[in-house]
What does this fold into?
Amino acid sequence: METQHTDLTSDAAERIMAADFKNIVKKVREGKTLSQSELARVQARASGVVNTSLTTAANLNELASALGVTRQSIYRWRKLEGAPEPAANGTHSVIAWRQFMAANALEGGSASTDMEALKARKLLAEIEDRELRLAVRKNEYVPLEEVRLEWTTQVGKAIALMRAKFESELPPILSGLDAIGIQRELSAAIDEICTTLHNGGQCTP
It folds into this structure.
């Protein structure tokens, strides 16, 4: 029985990878969340790597090719602290190596065009912008102006409260007390101020 030859040519493989990347772009446009491997592919392409579909390399040759570096570079980087270890079956995580290279500012080769990298960086910006907008809608972030306004308001309340205590209320009370009595009254005043600040500026009756 004749065996069908199923090996892909490099051109066919590139077309498949391009179509797959378009699906990732479409997924982002539709507001869907990318998987970790999909996000890693976008990040890799943004840094100038074309073969972003390969997530596991069978050997060092394949790993070096996926990262766009020489085997000598891999041998040298494996000695660095935190370098990814091969799996039990001898394969290597391309994603882990890309993250390690980025974290340690290790430069690899670039097989993609500047335009492809630019498109990927634009896509990353869209992803980050969408995630930020979603976080804002979930009230996970507060606008900076609101923080400044609230901080200024609370500082103003604290200053007003301290002036009222130490300039108006305490002097007549402290005038006839000894050192221990003065210390007791001052401690009570400080505790009251701290409690008021803790309650957001609301004075207790």
Observations:
- The mean pLDDT is 76.
